[in-house]
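User: For a reading group we're discussing how well predicted structures match intuition. Take SH3 domain-containing protein. Before you show the prediction, I'll give you the sequence so everyone sees exactly what went in.
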Amino acid sequence: MRISKTLTAAALTLAAAAATISPALAAPALAPYRVTPWHDARVRQLPTTHSQQVDYVTADNGYDAYCWTHGENIEGNDIWVRQLGDTYKQGYVAAYYLKGGVTGGVGTQCG
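Assistant: Thanks. Here is the predicted 3D structure of SH3 domain-containing protein, as structure tokens, for the group to look at:
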């Protein structure tokens, strides 16, 4: 009985500690949009081709997306979409590479 009470107390302590994890370590909020690239593309840290590549997207796969912003103009479109890539790293993909119109179907502007 004493071991059971000790284990229960330890479990409650762990549960309380888990509830106080900082928001930075918490799971990201669910993305409100789903985008699909028509072509493989790089996910960049910032909305420009001069920015570091952080991930990639593969044609015809679906990806979580959050918002769009203006950036470097790619083939007449300066819209970039903030989204997750194949390895779940967040960054920007030029909307030029996404199906769904000028913003890749994402209706919310970042900011």
